[in-house]
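Issue: copy button drops trailing tokens. Both records pasted manually instead:
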Amino acid sequence: MQKIHSESGEVLISISPLIDCRNIKTDSADDAGGTGGANGAPLHTRARGDAARERQAELSPIHDFMGKLLQPGAIGRLAEYVRWQAAWREGYANGMSFDEALATAPDYAPLSINLDLTTACNYRCDHCVDMDILNTGIRYEHERLKDSLTRMADKGLRSVILIGGGEPTAYPGFGDIVRHLKDRDIKIGVVTNGSLMKKVREVAGVMGEGDWVRLSLDSADNGTFRAMHKPVNAKCTLDWICEQIPAIKDANPALQIGYSFIIVWRDCRTNNADIIENVAEIAAAAERAKRWRFDYISLKPFLTRAEENNAEIVDLVRDEEHLGGIMKTIRGEIERAKRQQDDSFKVIESTNLRVLENGSYKNYTEQPHNCHLQFFRQVVSPLGVFNCPVYRHVPQALIGGKHAYATDADRRETRDNTLRLIEAFDAAAECRDVTCLYNHANWFIEDLIRNPDKLGSLEAGEERRDYFL
């Protein structure tokens, strides 16, 4: 049994080494970690239908993850993974152990990571999905974090989103990490609450084409903003944050800056609290964003965490008729917001919002048993390395400790743990309520693994230099 420990030595989760995958526990999706395949077999032997493999037309370009994996800079890695998985499945049928299969595994770091720099936050948002981990005092050793990023870059890391678990600009080494990544030609995205824009301004000059900063603002009015976010600093208002954007755009016009708006409707609840509704402010927020020279406003639905497994999910609080009325109101606001669009400003609707409106969100909850995207995208956090942004800090999604990539030996062990978790984490069970943006990519890869001859006709797409997953 492979044990993953916290920095204090506490056992966080145990992962079967899968010396023989026929020994994986299979009785129930409610087993710890959701592990197991039918009749003692690994998850990939469980039959699934083909309906969920169809390409969902609602995917916005930023969520076309299969298109990103087909770029010339990634398609070779994708093909290696598919061939290895196909060979392992054939080998399993002929008695191969998983340890034997690991000896031939592709040796890569993730293509893309979410990097949670800190658990510290200077806001007290009622709607925060990470409230239970904020301000814990758990932190990285800065130089070991840089060592991890260096080794990951050497093994194929192409993009990093500084986000989540706290406010990234509150990390004392924020600027050093940005420069360290840019020295290695890593594309960077930053998701910030906007309270420390001075930190962003200081590194704006080293960021370039394809890099972006997105501010979580969720309102058009100072009163709504402060009521929703409860910033510690009294001077932190929506006006004060927006007033700082033009100087950054003047310093670096290539840096894309977005205005993030999580749509909260009547009856939304999380953390045992009613959340402040902001639907009526969508159009006004778009006008404000354009006026202060943001490049776009991004609209997405409110998320909460499921009680049974702590996954981030869209909160459907009532029946379809009730939801339809809410979406009609939201659609009217969005259409008014789109009047602001021109060559310099866009209104972006997230895939989650599109599928919630048209009722196809259930198509995105039918997952294959194996989540293949965790080989290409992970979350690195002071709390550890996790297999998906939906499951940051969830024990059954833990791959390794916070410095799991700090040495070559650690990196190889983390790669092996990743491949073990692909076999042990049953996405069909764990993610059954998750409207998964990786759904199409996972089914596409699953189909290639089952039919590896298709690799011969697989063609590279255009090179977008967008490897954010």
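Record 2 (pasted manually too):
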Amino acid sequence: MSGFRPAFWPTVMTVPAVLAMIALGSWQVYRLDWKLNLIAQMEAQLAAAPVPLPAGPVDPETWDYRRVTVSGTFDHAKEVHMVSHSHRGNLGYHIYTPLNRDDGDGVVLVNRGWVPRDNKDPATRADGQVGGSVVVDGIVRKGWGQASFVPDNDPAKNVWFFADLPAIAKTMDIDPPTVYVAAGPDPNPGGYPLGGQTRVTLRNNHLAYAITWYGLAAALVAIYILWHRSRRKRAVV
């Protein structure tokens, strides 16, 4: 590198680009640490002992992925059907049913679990339409909006593609919930709905992104140096 003289315009274009790539790589490292902590927190909450679901509105950000118990009576006549795949990739529906709380504190929306397409009709799984007071041991979850290429919900046909909780509550004629409870794996009579569908499935590609940005920065620096060496040799010749 003796006698190295950086050219003006290549330097003006290269230095900001390298700094930007290093900054983006460092941001991905920060995001990696945040995502690992978030996954660890969710897994710890899933493994913890359940606590009673509090009365009144529940903060979705604070309670998401927390294990809870709540007792009440299902109103099966108001169930809604959310299009979903099972963990084995089979197409079917998640059954969302209002639960009238035993403590008299309103209604809780419960995702009772998955059923195959052939069991969408409640009559085909009558044994699973349990009556009387039950105790639900499940996971608090928050709703989600419509993603790209996802069809619109069709309340008239009772076919749903995303958890628009206010819209679901409207069809059930209940107060809009802030969260719902996804039932745990305790079996239902007759086998359906099949609970225990909640898993931590957060994507974590931040390490790969960080390596990519740092690698691009290193490659650009190498190209910059090699170009100047080649330029110097041509000048000597």
